[in-house]
Specification:
It is built from 15 helices and no strands.
Amino acid sequence: MPVLGGLIILIQIAFAIHAIRTGRETFWIYIIAFLPGIGCAVYFFTQILPEMQNNRAVRSAGNTILKAIDPERELRRRKEELEIADTVQNRVKLADECIESGFPTEAIALLQRCLNNGHDDPDILLKLAQAQFVAAQFQETVDTLDSLIRANPNFRSPDGHLLYARSLEALGKIPQALEEYQALAVSYPGEEARWHYAHLLHQQGQTGRARQVLEEMQLRARRSPKYYRRKELEWLKQAEQLLKTLQV
């Protein structure tokens, strides 16, 4: 079968190039060349696959595919771990997965169990606030974050600060939300907070200030490295769309 033979030759060439570029022992080239099928299979499973499994991007892509095929796979695994060992660490891991899977009330119960047992770690309180926000419990979110800061005055979390501002906005406390967003506009390590600030300014009729924030986002993006623009692409696109609306 000429097609199959050609495919094997291409695989041999690719694996031989990989062996040379990664500094593998010379004998691998002979194995790949003189044992086309078995040699390529052995090389893949012993040299390439372990390397792929240690690659964060590959692992992330693989996890995304597995989650698409079986969305509750990781959730079941975390539940099994908690059944085996009912520890704070396993409760927090399961709570994280519950939030990601769209079960915030279950996450809230798990995290409150941790807090009721005397674990008032600020990271657990922050996760509880995140779960409460996802569950649309906005006043509870604010209360939890206030408790966090009272107990841990030196604790700083940009994501927690943004969560606080968004909860105030959801509660209709617009002046307070704008004040928090204004502080985040100069401190948040990304564009999400600035977009929420501009969006709320627009809703409040402050179009001039909203336009200024959006233009600052675009200017910052132009001056930033490509990886930053890729990371913030979602918010930059939304900023561009909102800016077009303001310019009409």
